Model the fold of this input.
Amino acid sequence: MKTTGASIIVKKLLEQNVEYIFGYPGGSVIPLFDELYNHFDKIKLIQPRHEQGGTHAADGYARTTGKVGVVIVTSGPGATNTITGIATAYLDSVPLVVITGQVPVSMMGSDAFQEVDTTAIASPITKANFLVKDIKELSSTLDLAFHIASSSRPGPVLVDIPSDVQKAEIELSEIKRADLSEFKRKSNVNQDDIEKLFTLLKQSEKPLIIAGGGVIISDSSEYVKKFVKKNNIPMITTLMGKGTYPDNNDLYYEGVGMHGTYYGNYAVQNSDLIIVFGVRFSDRILGNVKEFAPKAKIVQIDIDISEIEKNVRVDIGIKGDLRDVLKKLVGYDSINKDFTPWIKELKRIREEYPLTYERKGGLKPQYLIELVNKYFPDDTVIVADVGQNQMWTAQFYKFKKPRTFLTTGGLGTMGYGLPAAIGAKVGNPDKEVVVITGDGGFQMNIQELMTIKRYGLNVKILIVDNAYLGMVKQWQELFYNKRYSATPFNDNPDFKKIAEVIGIKSKTLKKWKNAEKVIKELYEAKEPMLVHALVDREEDVFPMVPAGASLNEILLNKED
Amino acid sequence: MNKSKKLVDVFAFNGSNVLLKLVTFFEKRGLKIQSINLFKTEKSNITRFNMIILSNENELKKCCNQLFKFVETIDVKIS
Done:
């Protein structure tokens, strides 16, 4: 009995329990979409208005559910349109399987219509990529793709499948399965390293934990919490680690780095021992690497050995799955050491230098985010776009649960927010999903409003419109003598009207006095709703560590 | 720091663009590959990439650790 390549792909999706695909058809995937047509009852199609939007949506789905996001697009422009989404997922370790159509094998290399060398283009931004030129390899390659995408440190995998391979037939008996054992890397935690960690901890007077995106990805938040509470150690998170620990207690000092808190950065610079879980130490965290954590010994724990000591000196590097390592750590008795003086010091610094903003003048975006925090429930998924809106969200929304904050920490992709919120809502139909975006980023994937409408997704949209590319403008203001080159957006359209035309409920918000009522209405709406908030144009994000400066050189306001 | 010729052997699963990945990996980090040879191994799906690279030992060791970010990488030996 024979089967086709397209049928093998669909069966593989079913075998992997794929419930949703984010796909857009085209010439090179017609055979695959034709096969999918028979299975849309089991594999539901979410069709974006642009392949980039579809890839971000699959990313949002994957980040919130922990499942693999699946994208299907055609060759050439279909594939290249996914590239920004794939790179976004790669930098933040998000599991995606991207299936791209390709021109027939016989035409490859002839510059055929809609032909590009997709795997070569995607090579630097994928965990692995495959070009399947023989139907015999199709099944095993897809097995591998799903395994690689979701195992160890997750990431996007691209599978390029020529249209004639999709149409080709094969005897069922000839279908091969992959030998996944070859790609399984062992995670043997070195017990000596664990002992050394506890020795350092017992010697320490000012320990600090930094939790990063790895904690969220490995679903280890509960263990981090247990370890922190058991040993009474203060902790902070990176941008990607938000949600690891409830954002309202004496042991949590919020963010670190360029737009972290003053007290979070103070903790890093004054700690004598930093234990780091799933953090890759990007330049946005480190500032001047030579002056980072000058008094501290550093213990870095990561599943990816290539991250250990990549950007910062490390005293102990432990390679291992965070869940395994943390299970071991919480299995130990409490070290019974009193860190109260250190915690009191941090509390005092937090009281002296709190996150704050002026509650006068034009409507402040921080206030709107506080209102979102006030009205929406704890498990709401908050999706931030990129720029000032992203940093204000990270600073002023109090995250209480893991996988509730989606943002592009590595690539910093403007236009991510709206489509990622679509994926988040598809994966979490019972949760509130709020996207907080700027006017610039919103317009980069504004077409996805149509996708929200088409599928009736109850996504709430808050646009904080300062008619600037705000973060770039902030740098121009502080470091380029206020020469606002190409950053003013004085010609923004009326987003309320755009939403209305599409059939999405919307409101414009200009005044402080109306803010609470409108945000409450946003929460209570039983359908998608957009709030276009015209905020104070000159509001900036503080604190701020200038690029390349030490974390000690933190600016608290424009006058600093 | 004194630089000298170092021999780097990377054992990797065959795959599209593995050679490209390795070459750009070292180039991006400012390490020049002076020669590169590819060898079959006893396993048909694994290739040995043998490179001569001008570098100091510490720099190269730190850099080669990052080769494990590639899913195809099985082992790296520096001599």
